[in-house]
Design a protein that fits this description.
By secondary structure, the protein is α+β, with helices and mostly antiparallel strands. It has one domain: Aldehyde Oxidoreductase, domain 3, CATH 3.90.1170.40. It is 39% helix and 35% strand. It contains four helices and eight strands; from the N terminus they run E-H-E-E-H-E-E-E-H-E-E-H. The chain has helices spanning 14-21, 55-71, 101-118, 138-155; strands at 3-8, 30-37, 44-51, 75-81, 83-86, 90-98, 121-127, 130-134. A four-stranded mixed beta sheet has the order 1-4-6-2, sandwiched between helices. A four-stranded antiparallel beta sheet has the order 5-3-7-8, with no helix packed on it. Helix 3 (101-118) packs across helix 4 (138-155). The relative contact order is 0.22.
C-alpha cells in the first residue's frame, strides 16, 4: 500500500487506519500521523465539507506522490471526510511510514499543510442562527507557502 487516498462521507476510524499502516514494512522505523477533528468553536453545531469528486482525489494523490518521492516514504495515507459532521468527529487522517522519524514527521506536516489550501474542499459552518462558507485561513496559506519555499530552495 504505497499510497492510500480516500474521500468519503463515511466516518473515519483513525485507530483502524493506524493499526493497518503500522508494521507493514519491515524497513520502517517510523509511522507518523495527524488526525483532524471538528472542534467546538463559537456557536458551531456542525461542519459541512463539499468537494469536487475526481479532482479532489487527484489533488490528494499528487500531494501524496510528492511526499513519497521527497521523503522516500514506504507508505502515505490521506483519508478525508466530506458531508456534514458534528463536533468531535474525525475530518481527516494523514499518515506516513518511513525508515526514519524525521522523514515521516515532515511528510505528514507537508501533506496536511498543503492539502488545506490545494485540495478542492469547501467548508460550511452550521450554527443555530444559520450557516456560512469559510475561506482559507491566513495561517493555512502561510503553512502551505512554507513548503513551496522549501521545495524551491532545494530545487535552486
Amino acid at each position: 500500500m504505497p499510497s492510500d487516498i480516500r474521500v468519503s462521507a463515511e466516518p473515519i476510524d483513525a485507530a483502524a487506519l493506524m493499526a493497518a499502516l503500522t508494521g507493514q514494512s519491515p524497513d520502517d522505523g517510523a509511522v507518523s500521523s495527524f488526525v483532524g477533528q471538528v472542534r467546538a468553536e463559537g456557536d458551531l453545531v456542525a461542519l459541512e465539507l463539499e468537494h469536487y469528486p475526481g479532482v479532489t482525489e487527484a489533488a490528494l494523490r499528487e500531494l501524496s506522490e510528492q511526499a513519497m518521492a521527497r521523503w522516500s516514504l514506504s507508505q502515505a495515507l490521506i483519508h478525508h471526510r466530506v458531508g456534514r459532521m458534528a463536533v468531535g468527529e474525525t475530518i481527516v487522517v494523514v499518515a506516513a511510514s518511513a525508515p526514519h522519524r524525521r522523514a515521516a514527521l515532515e511528510a505528514v506536516s507537508f501533506l496536511i499543510d498543503r492539502l488545506k489550501t490545494e485540495a478542492p474542499f469547501w467548508k460550511r459552518v452550521h450554527t443555530a442562527q444559520g450557516h456560512y462558507w469559510v475561506e482559507a485561513r491566513d495561517s493555512d496559506t502561510a503553512a502551505s507557502q512554507y513548503w513551496r519555499d522549501q521545495i524551491a530552495q532545494e530545487d535552486a
